[in-house]
Amino acid sequence: MHNKRLAAAVCAALLSVPFAVSAQDSEETASPFSFNATVTTDYVFRGVSQTDNGPAFQAEASYSAPFGLYATVWGSNVDFGEKGGPNFEVDYAIGWSKDLSDRWNLDLGVNRYTYTSASSDYGDIDYNEYLAKVTWTGPVTVSGLLGYADDYSNSGAEQTYSALEASYDIGETGFSIGASAGYTTIKAQGNDWPRREDYYDGSISVSKAFGPATATVGYYDTFGADAPSLRRESDTYKPGVVFTVSVDVP
Q1: Among 57, 66, 77, 244, which residue's Cβ finds the most Cβ atoms within 10 Å?
Q2: Pfam families recorded for this chain (predicted)?
């Protein structure tokens, strides 16, 4: 679920790793560990650039148990465009994924966002987010995601995120198309939190698999009544096209 990449995103943030069976002299269960490396022209999280519209290099390691429990560690460089801000983000996720039927899956988890290499003047912005995701797999795969942080960015504010995602595999071509729409709302406590409006985010993408690698080109944007003011405050809310290559490491 962490899957901070909806494409990027979708993110993300939290992933379960399936078991595979290899046909040899005897059937063997594949390793429950999974590794992934990614390079992208922009690290976009829920419609907003986390690298000041610059490139990012990312890595992920996951473990999945037979009974559905999983754990993931994911890392990326970041640039919030503020002096003394963090240079790296490392996220830790733990959750439980259960197939309710042949088509329905339920995924519950918690993600810990941590940021390193920030100056002492910048402050601690680490926080937890609790996530629930329901996925229906058919001709089109559709997922609904709900996230809640009770202390967003260690500020005392409450953040809620809801999203709907869909993807479609185009036959045996290796191509797939995806789309998503999400809504972020932040409820500040007191007057300490800077004014920040709620907003929507959306994306459309096309991906092509090349063996263990997947190349994706996507368009990401923020929109809604408050989007113009957000864009005036920061270029990181502006729309853009992002190219990403992700490789599963054996």
Answers
A1: 244
A2: Gcw_chp
